[in-house]
Design goal:
single chain; 163 residues; mainly alpha; 6 helices
Length: 163
């Protein structure tokens, strides 16, 4: 930490940082035209892929919002997904609390994982990664469900449940 503070006080460090930033800015300016020409096809294809994905999503929303029973199924799936996410999250938090009580671990730093066995560290990391994936999937499912409910309400001339 002291060496960092010494480097920040030294004017030669600031001059080196300024020169390096200027060179990087010039290089980026020179390469910009080349990179735009090179990746033009890539950006166009990714734009087309996003448009196709948006159309597929809209088709799914239209299909699932045709009847009240389909909307209820989507709502139940979102509810079950949320319950599963909360349950796995509570198991992961409970596992951390168990390890803290059993091994006296105060946090989840590198030192904490050094005191754990390989299996404990693996399952703890796997539980947290699975939980993060579930959070992501649940949020996507909730957004899809909200779109289905809005589409259903519009098709039946009902007021939307939420603004």
């Amino acid at each position: 930490m002291q060496s960092i503070a010494d480097n920040l006080r030294d004017p030669s460090w600031w001059f080196t940082a300024f020169v390096a930033g200027t060179v990087a800015s010039l290089a980026a300016g020179l390469l910009q035209g080349y990179l735009e020409a090179r990746f033009k096809l890539f950006w166009a294809s990714s734009r087309e892929k996003r448009e196709r994905a948006r159309l597929r999503r809209q088709e799914r929303i239209d299909a699932w919002s045709q009847s009240e029973s389909r909307v209820i199924i989507v709502l139940l799936e979102a509810l079950l997904s949320t319950v599963l996410m909360l349950w796995v999250g509570s198991l992961a938090v409970g596992h951390v609390n168990y390890l803290r009580l059993r091994y006296g671990i105060g946090g989840l730093g590198v030192k904490a994982f050094q005191t754990l066995s390989t299996w404990h560290a693996f399952w703890l990391a796997a539980a947290w990664l699975f939980w993060l994936w579930l959070v992501w999937k649940t949020m996507r499912h909730i957004v899809f469900t909200a779109a289905c409910v809005r589409q259903f309400c519009r098709s039946k001339d009902l007021p939307p449940p939420l603004p």
